[in-house]
Amino acid sequence: MSGWGRYPQIETEVVYPASFSDCSQRIRSADRVIARGLGRSYGDSSLYQNMLGSRYLDRYVAFDEESGLLTCSAGVSLDQIVSTFVPRGWFLPVTPGTRFVTIGGAIASDVHGKNHHVDGTFCDHVDRIDLLLGSGEVVTVTPDEKPDLFRATCGGMGLTGMILSASLKLRRIKSGEMEQTIIKTPDIEATLRAFEEASGASYSVAWIDCLARGKALGRSLLVLGEHAQKGSLNAKPGQGISIPCNMPSGLLNPLTVKLFNALYYNKVLHSGKKSIVSLHSFFYPLDSLQNWNRLYGRKGFVQYQFVLPKSSGLEGIKHMLERISHSGRGSFLAVLKVFGSANDNLLSFPMEGYTLALDFKVEPAVFSLLDELDRIMLDHGGRLYLTKDSRMSEETFKAGYPAWADFNEIRTRYQAIDKFVSGQSIRLGLNS
Ligand SMILES: Cc1cc2nc3c(=O)[nH]c(=O)nc-3n(C[C@H](O)[C@H](O)[C@H](O)COP(=O)(O)OP(=O)(O)OC[C@H]3O[C@@H](n4cnc5c(N)ncnc54)[C@H](O)[C@@H]3O)c2cc1C
Fold it and tell me: Using N-to-C axis directions, what is the helix angle for 188-197 and 310-327, rounded to 10°?
């Protein structure tokens, strides 16, 4: 078993309880346990010897057509919600770059989308969570009821209990299509400036050529989006293709990655290009390439996603990109987004600033490069995203998440600390 990055891997099996009472019984009798959704976190946050999968907790409970409030079990996936509700004129308020994520996983990672600067995180739209505690008791937590437990559970990586169900507010849409504009920028200064100029856009994301050097350092395609006001509400994804098996690990080498990045950047000839695209191709481009994690070979890959505050963002990102392009170990695709203000959740990742996500094939030299990037990132006041992490040190974590001690106090208060444990929580010093 592993996360999406296929690093690290352990030998174990997932148990899939068939009902809430089955979950309760298993948690009461377990020594230590962690909840698992669709395994789209990259590292070891849903990885432990004893894992409880939410596959069969897949029911809708209620939907209010007036307010858009949806209540469902924690194993319902965003894919399910998109297929059911887009044809009825509703979409997710916030969505990550894959729809193969469960409601439980989206809350536990307090995921963000391309609209954080406008709409905040996923949990900012969650009104209520039913949480199974280590004692086997189910409690309802809301921003007002047990607010300490709510703030620890949202973004808490499954370490406060198992989420059984939740209520979240969907957003109205008139079309299943998106109006997309692509802006081509020549370097990192221009990219960040373009983000600021586009701060009124509902959605924004940039794909950076992270192997470009010198004057072209940080050249990007900035993609902006708005929900179209008319068009079909048909939400069916296009026919995807699947990577059938592990690719030879030499396939992604500095040369092929550099070539891919250059081709990608140059595929857009004119800055300001506008088009109408489907909701699926705008939000979930990678989902059409099933099992794309096999491209990195048997040993897998790590994703490195950091955020830097606005004040040090330009200087810090430049420094990191210089170091990465110098190493020649650039990422297949590097994704840059802008974040609005942070929320109050104790371990939520976003803070006002810029976030960059990069993939690195697992090979021995990568880990020392990433340790070096950690130091640059901390020097600029940043932190790493827990749901993408598989290797950061306890020191890096605690420096980036100063509320970790409050988080553990709340876990102790609700008897979660010795019960809900992952490979990651042990590595980061949240459990011994
Ligand atoms: C291609 C791709 C693109 C992505 N894009 C983004 C993005 O744009 N923005 C973003 O924020 N993230 C992104 N992610 C990360 C992904 O959204 C998160 O890792 C998400 O948490 C995965 O959900 P999951 O159901 O697969 O949970 P898992 O990976 O199985 O688990 C993730 C965490 O949630 C906990 N958890 C799962 N279910 C429950 C439950 N029922 N109760 C309590 N805890 C639970 C686990 O213990 C673990 O800590 C992306 C991932 C991929 C593979």
Answer: 140
| Protein residue closest via CA to atom 46 of ligand 1 | 46
Per-residue tens of pLDDT for the chain, all 432 residues: 999 999 999 999 999 999 999 999 999 999 999 999 999 999 999 999 999 999 999 999 999 999 999 999 999 999 999 999 999 999 999 999 999 999 999 999 999 999 999 999 999 999 999 999 999 999 999 999 999 999 999 999 999 999 999 999 999 999 999 999 999 999 999 999 999 999 999 999 999 988 888 999 999 999 999 999 999 998 678 776 776 677 666 666 776 777 777 777 777 777 888 999 999 999 998 888 888 888 888 899 999 999 999 999 999 999 999 998 888 777 777 999 999 999 999 999 999 999 999 999 999 899 999 999 999 999 999 999 999 999 999 999 999 999 999 999 999 999 999 999 999 999 999 998
Ligand 1 pocket, mutate which of 1, 14, 40, 422 (most atoms under 8 A from CB): 40
Which residue range forms the structural domain that includes residue 141?
14-173+401-427
Q: State the Cα–Cα distance between residues 332 and 387, nearest whole angstrom.
A: 19
In angstroms, what is the span from residue 3 Cα to ligand 1's centroid? 10
The answer to whether residues 367 and 413 belong to one domain is: no
Mutate to test the pocket of ligand 1, among 4, 26, 36 (most ligand atoms within 8 A of CB): 36
Which residues contact ligand 1 via a Cβ below 6 A? Answer: 4, 34-41, 45-46, 54, 74, 96-98, 101-102, 104-106, 108-109, 111-113, 157-158, 162-163, 286, 387, 422
| Six-digit token string for 101 | 């994520």
- Give how many domains the chain has, as a whole number: 2
pTM: 0.96
Give domain status of residue 217, yes or no. Answer: yes
- From residue 214, how far is each of 64, 93, 116, 321, 322 by CA, in Å? 54, 39, 30, 10, 8
